[in-house]
Structure formats: structure tokens, C-alpha cells
Design goal:
- By secondary structure, this protein is an alpha+beta fold.
- It has 21 helices and 25 strands.
- Strands 5-4-3-6-2-1-7-8 form an eight-stranded mixed β-sheet, covered by helices on one side. It has a five-stranded mixed β-sheet with strand order 9-10-13-11-12, sandwiched between helices.
- β20 and β21 form a beta hairpin.
- The longest helix has 18 residues.
- The N and C termini lie far apart (91 Å).
Length: 630
Amino acid sequence: MPEINILSPHVADLIAAGEVVERPASVIKELIENSFDAGAKNITIELKNGGMTYIRVTDDGCGMLPEDAGVCFLRHATSKLKNERSLEAIGTMGFRGEALAAISSVSRIEMITRRKGSVEGTRVLVEAGEIAEMSPCGCPVGTTIIVRDLFHNTPARLKFMKSDRAEGSACTAFALRCALGRPEVSVRLIRDGKEEFFSPGDGKISSCAYSLLGREQALDLLEMSAQGEDVSVAGYVGSPKAGHGNRAKQFFFVNGRCIKSALLQAAVEQAYRNTLLTGRYPAAVCYLTLSPASVDVNVHPAKTEVKFRDERRIFDAVYYAALSALTGEKPSAEIKLSHTTAKALSASKKDFFKSTSSCESPGKSPSTEKSAGFSSAHTIIAEKPKIGSSPTAEHISKPQEACQLRLCDSVRPSYSPPARSEKETDKSPRIEPGSEVASVTPADFRLVGETMKTYILVEQGDNLILIDKHAAHERMIFDRLKSQGHEIMSQTLLSPVTTKLSTADIEIIERNGKLLSRLGFEIDPYGDDSVILRGVPADTDVSDAPAMIEEICDKLGRGSRVSEADSVDEILHTVACKAAIKAGWSTAQAELMKIAEAVIRGEVKYCPHGRPVSVTLTKKHLDKEFSRIV
């Protein structure tokens, strides 16, 4: 007997359906996209029992004529493609003509539709892919599709479905992504009789994000945009202080289509280098608009994966847009005190401030040796992103340089003259021509002092700003080291330091010898289990050198598969941390002023590990805590 069998059309349809309809959420996605293609302005989705027993999608789109309603459930029946030339520039959500055929083959479907201008509508009942009944009916313009008993005829697929709660959550997530991709369409989701979300459909990305993502997340979003000849980027990225444990808050859309793209994820996350805490991921709502001919959506039956004709150009567009949004973020975050903290603050209000007169003189500061190499960073003025010139690998590893940064000493404020002219006392911020970044003048803030030998207190208008001196100084050193662009200056030790290391660590040092030398380390093997340090990066305390070497070996050992640029950043993180002034030190007032100046001017926002360097208390909030106002 022959061993090769030709499958029946019914079995072939069931197999094909498995590629398109994986779970109830797949049905939701396909039906919503059909509504988008029909030009709907309002869409309502209803589901029960996780979508397994009931899904209803209603839209006010163009609807269908009776002759179209009779053939739309056939495989490869579509109004969106005419011939093979149409595949070169697909501008609709659907195009294969497989969705309705796949859904109908594994469920019971009822469709009610009426074309605009038609006197009556059409009602179609389909079961297991076959039309069971078709008749005229009265209904509004648009289409309503009800899907019942999903996978009732495919027990193998049915037993792999998760709980109703899990499947319902997946349906909600898919519907939300679709709604987020079309701000001009109002989408409402009702799950088991309860409204899950509703988008206004006013065409504004901001109101769409606010209504779908929630107030808390929307307030942490930073607007981004970039425009090129054939591609534009719009949307929002999350503030670095609001990082997430996974990428669930990242949404990418190409011409309104929700997609999954490792390329776009990498572009956004690259903009957060040295800004976001390790293991945290930024939120993003990114809309790409480009020519349909520049992107191939005919890659996977689910249409969630695409291929770009020019990936480098797309990467640049998203990267620069996200980087521009981060550059324009406000330098400090406002916080609210908890009830417990507020009570503690009220109880200790007499001892809360440390006056500037109590600061030890530079000669008595333990940090005198370190302050010799301390200098304030230059003001960073970021140009608007330009799409068209692809950054090199070096640019990608140095996002600040890739954004065409310019150093501007002319906007650096001076604090030394006791008497100030009328021009100097003007409170209006000066703006460098061609830039959107404003500098500060001496009247913009006042250094109050330091508290707990850790936090710098700065008064600016009606705000009290607390600055973590170690985190801010660490960032300033890191930026200075990164911006040098050549070998970091090494300081030769008068008395070389010997450090014992494991065999694995010694191998790591030997393997990365050239890299460490370029970064200011002079290390030679010393016996079988030790190395001798003859030089370390400038500004580094000799006493910190052994611990620094061990920490660097640990980082280089964990990152054996990362690029050299990432390894450089990890080493510079360690160097900057060890070279920065420490919490608990009595720091000279001049150093406190330099740090405060850099933070207030917006040069320093986050430490290299992603922690914010400052928080803000408003006068209004303090007045409430002390019952000065109600």
C-alpha cells in the first residue's frame, strides 16, 4: 500500500488554521485588524471565559455586500490584494485572506454586516468552515462577528489552552496593542461584562497612551520624534528612573501595525546605555511611518515580524529619537514624602539642615588628595537628531558623541565675584544659539550646605534639591573618561602594589591586557597567583586599587560574550566609582558647588548605574508637612 496520503481539504484547513489561530488572542487580533482595514472609527470587543466560548467584535466600518459576505470565509479570499505586484507594497493590516477561513474552521461563527448605502444587511452562520445559513437582516452599517466554541473540533489544541484568566489576559494584551497602534480609532474592550479599557480615538498619541497604559506610566513617558526623507519616528520612551524588569512595556508599530522587532528594541535600549540600571528595561511606545515598499510584512502568518529594506537607517531613526528624548529630560525628579518620613522630618526639623559654615576647609578634608584631579564637566548641548548618516560602531557605543555633542564653556556660570552687574543678576536663563538647553546663572540657585556627609542641599526658587554627591561625582568622572577619545592618563605608583588573584582572574587580565593598558592600568604578572600594579588611572586612590582590580576581573569574566565597548563601559564604571568622593567624607565647599552646578545645569541626571542623582522637595509640600497650609 502507498504510504503517502493526500490530506482532505478539511484536514488541510485545520492544519493551516493552527498557524494563524494559536489561541483566542489570535482571533481578537485578526478581527480587530480587519476592522481597521474596513475604515472603522469605533470598535467594541466583548469576550467571555477567556474568549474560549464567546468573542464578539463590532465595528462601524464599510461593511460587506451579500456577494462578498458569502465568499469571505473561503481560503485566500481577500479584497486587499489584486496580483503579485501588490505584495511589493502592502499597506493594509491583512492581505493573505486566511484569517476568517482559519477562524471559521475551528469555531462556530455568526457574522452580521451591511454595506453603506445598502437597504438591508446580511447574516451568515458558519460552522467548521462551511456556511450553514445565509439570509438578509436589518442591522447598522458595519460588521459584527461572533465567534463561539473555539477549537471545539480540535481537542488536541483545546487541551493546551490555559485557564480562562490567562487566556483573557492575553486577549486584553493583544487588543491593547492593536488599540495603541491606532490612536485615531476608538477601541473598547469588555471582558466578562466589565470594561477593561477604552481609547478616545481622537488621533492624539498622548491621550491614547494615557487611557490605555494608565496615568502612572504615562506620566513617566518622554516624548520622542525624528524626521527623515522616507522615515519618521514618533511616540514616547520611559524615564530612566522608571525602568522595568522586562520588555513588556515596549510597543513598536510600523505603519500602524504592531510588531515584534529585536532591531527596534536594540535601538531604544542602546540610547539608555550608562543611564538605566543593569537588568532594567525602558518603556517605549514607538511609531514608525515609512513607505510600504520599505518593509516586508509577508514574513510570518501572524504578521508580527517584519523585515526592513534598510535596517541601518531604521536603527538610526529610532536610536536618535530616543536619545533626543532622554537628552531633553528634566534634571531632577519631584518626590512625595511618606507619612512616616514626614513625621521624622517634622521631629528633626531643627537639625535637618547643615549650614555651609560647618563645612570643613579644603585643608582638613580627607578628599583633598582626590580633589586635585576633580573638574566640573562641560555643558552638553545636544543637536536635534538627523536621520540619514549611519553611526559607526564607535558612535553607537558612545551615544552622547553620536548625538553630535558640543562643549560650550561660554555658558558656564561663575560664582566668585562678590558684586554682580545687572546683566549677571538677570534671572532669565541664557540659551546658546541653535540650542534648546539653557544654562543657569548664579541667581538661579543657592548652595545651602551638606547633610549626613552624603547629600548636598540646594535651594532653587521654591524647591529644595537634595543631591547624592557620590552618584553625581561618579557620573561626572565617567563622562569625562568617556569623552577623552584616547588612552586614559595613567599615574605611576611610587610603591607598586601586589595583589593576589585566582588563576581565572589572572587569565582574564592577560587576555585583556591591551584594553586595560589603554584605560590607564599598568599590570604585570608577579608569580603564579599574583599581579603587580605599577600604574592606575589618574585620580584613583591607591588604596582602592586591589579591590578595583578584583571587581574589574569579575565584570570581564561575566561579560565574556559582550562587545569591547561594553567591557570598556564596565571598567570605566568601576574606575569612576572608586575615584569619586564618598558618602561620609567631609567635602570642601568648592567641590560641593561644582557638583551642584553640574546637576542644576542638567549635565548630570543619573549615575553610570542608572540611579537618579537628585530629588526635589517643593515649598508647597514642606508647608503642608509643617501644617503651614492645609
